Amino acid sequence: MLKTSNVATQGEHSVQEIEIKVPSNPQFLKIIRGGISHISELCGFSEEECNALTVAVDEASSNIIRHTYGGNTEEVIVVNFRILQDRLEVVLRDFGKKVDPEKIKPRNLDEIRPGGLGVHLIKSTMDEVIYDNTPEIGNQLVLVKYLPGGKDTN
Amino acid sequence: MLDVKTISEKKITIVEVVGEVDLYSSPDLRKVLLGLTGSKTSTILVDLGKVKYMDSSGVATLVEALQQVGRYSGKLKLANLRDAVKDVFELSRLDKVFDIYATLMDAKQSV
Fold this sequence. Notes:
- The complex is a heterodimer.
- Chain A has one domain: Heat Shock Protein 90 (2-Layer Sandwich).
- In chain A, strands 1-2-3-4-6-5 form a 6-stranded antiparallel sheet, with helices on one face.
- In chain A, strand 3 (about 75-85) and strand 4 (about 85-95) form a beta hairpin.
- By secondary structure, chain A is α+β, with helices and mostly antiparallel strands.
- The model of chain A has no long low-confidence stretch (mean pLDDT about 90).
- In chain A, helix 1 (about 30-40) packs antiparallel against helix 2 (about 45-70) and helix 2 packs antiparallel against helix 3 (about 120-125).
- Chain A has 3 helices and 6 strands, in the order ββααββαββ.
- By secondary structure, chain B is of the alpha/beta class.
- In chain B, helix 1 (about 25-40) packs parallel to helix 2 (about 55-70).
- Classes of the chains: A alpha+beta, B alpha/beta.
């Protein structure tokens, strides 16, 4: 279920890569949360940032289950964590129906109603959110957070 | 796993939630809360002191319950939020929408 590897793809800088593959069943979300929680801690993020990163990756995974797979629990979610020199990248891959990035927007927070908060929680935490529509099958979402002291950190 | 206990006191019903509230477990919380709002429980205090994680589906469940109690002029109050849970409410700008108390005792005294 969990694979790790060292991949030197960033010039002279080593990249640590960890991959988690889980069924699209909500009962396995906890495994993904455990992964991002531990990795963000290793990256040196504050406790508050680790919590926010955990929520962001969990929300992205939940969205795959709910929207891409329509609640089907027998599909697959692959989460790839890449610790680079200046940032943590989390790549979420699914093999469900294509998502139109234009339709994925955070809702107006002035509306008090259940639902629709996930995208807001993701975008308010991550430095970059990239919907990569290049895979022939399924979708790839790339979440980027610059490391403490890395470029573009606030 | 999520454990949701309901404790009835004089004028209030306390819902004690233990565990992580996510897409998998939030339906369990929703079932209990909508059961209480369905029977028009006048004051519901949700004790989140033992909830170490809550996602947007958990928050949505509480928003739904809040809207339900509003329909019969009941009250729903939250108590004992850990920092990680409080952060989700703040990021969602819902910390001003709910009555949130630092302790369960504070919430009880507000009734």
